[in-house]
Amino acid sequence: MTVRGAASLGIGAMVGAGIFALLGEAGAVAGNATWLSFLLGGVVATLLGYVVAKLGARYPSRGGLVTYLMEGFGPGHLAGVFSWLLYFAAIIITAMVAVSFGSYAVALFIGDGASATSANLFTAGVIVVVAAIQIIGAEAIGKIQSLIVVLLMAVFAVFIAVTMGQMDAQLLSPSLYPSAFDIVSSIALTFFAYLGFAVISYAGEDLPDPERDLPKATYIALGITTLLYILISLGVFGTLTVDQVIQYGETALAEAARPVLGDAGFAMMAIAALLATFTSVNANIYGAVGSTSALAKTRQFPPIFGRPGRFGSTVGLTISALAILLLSILADLSAIASLGSVVALVIFLMVGLAGLRLRAETGSSALIIWLAILSTAVVLIVFAIQTAQDAPETFAAMIIVLALAAVLEYVWTAMRKRRDVAGTA
């Protein structure tokens, strides 16, 4: 995989999970200051991107973040628990984006009055198609991502030029901004839109020179995506009211193109959304398969995740695809986003601490790592407080997911020890 392919992998993962799937959710919290939330989320992601890139250059592996946690804390219970959490985060992200794909597909091909079954069929379809692509291999994945990202950039350029030229500045007035607490809380959602950059770390073994190529791909992907998010959110919230953005939800970006470009504009952005969410599902499943395969090799995960599949890739691909399919059909999008945000922030907080412990080996700046850790901790605490107040059921689900990761780790550790004893008997 080339630097361009790896950067495209990250951009594809971020754009699909972010600007399409989360714009309405972020707008419900940050209002017309969503552009500022995306900017601050990009700053936090870039700080963490520095930590991840340094770790990836030193420890190139398809295990990605899992490898860094194990290097930082050793292959014990702590790394095991967070390995399960990382896997959960990948499943949650991919499910959320697959749901967004289904929503746009229904809006484009069926229109108003479509049943939930129609959306579920489109959602299931994209998961199955992407699973088939994973069997082809990393080279094909990189080429597909690069092609689609180039097409997306062209569409976004048209959208930004048109909406920025026609936007109503009064809709973006700072006097309409929500409280600073709400804006900080919303960073958890907009940061969630940047999580795709971590997928680049899984390409470590597929890059010819990881020490040079991995950081370059990470910074390119984050820089392009941050600028893109800011300009698009300004265009959307400068065209639609906050209530309209919330009402349209996943399809808000396409609706923002309608007043200026008409139905053709809506169709153009809906097609772009299908491409973006497709690349995001593709990139995130690629990361999930890579991490579970690496974990199976080190026995942090059950061996079944690393076993060759009947048609190629691994059994972990089948398990992951089924988990994504079930979650995307059964769960609510807003609950998925909130749950995924907390899980991701907890994981990156630990990755930051791992980077701090390994800074001598990676040659990293302690100041930048501390800024990454502190900014992540602040966003996590504020978002957790607001979620506990406004959505206690989602907060309870967060606790359950954390507990489930701990239970799975201890159960698998006990099973592994029994197998070892039986093997030596």
Please describe the biggest sheet, giving its number of strands, its sense, and whether it closes into a barrel: none
Share of helical residues = over 70%
Distance between the termini: 45 Å
Give the helices and strands as they follow along the chain. Answer: HHHHHHHHHHHHHHHH
Oligomerization status of the protein chains? single chain
- Poorly predicted regions: none
Q: Which outline best applies?
A: globular
- Alpha-beta classification: mainly alpha
Measured by DSSP, the beta-strand proportion falls in under 5%
Integer average pLDDT: 83
Number of contiguous helices: 16
Radius of gyration: 20 Å
Number of strands: 0
What does this structure look like?
The protein is an all-alpha fold and 425 residues long. Helix 15 crosses helix 16. The N and C termini lie far apart (45 Å).
Essential attributes:
single chain; 425 residues; mainly alpha
Brief characterization of the structure:
By secondary structure, the chain is an all-alpha fold. The protein is built from 16 helices and no strands. It starts with a helix and ends with a helix.
Give the arrangement of secondary structure elements.
Blueprint: H1 3-20, H2 23-30, H3 34-58, H4 65-73, H5 77-109, H6 116-136, H7 138-166, H8 180-192, H9 210-237, H10 242-248, H11 252-297, H12 315-330, H13 333-357, H14 359-362, H15 366-390, H16 392-424
Helix pairs in contact: 1-7, 1-9, 1-11, 2-8, 2-10, 3-8, 3-9, 3-13, 3-15, 4-5, 4-13, 5-6, 5-11, 5-12, 5-13, 5-16, 6-11, 6-12, 7-9, 7-11, 8-13, 8-15, 9-11, 10-11, 11-12, 13-15, 13-16, 15-16
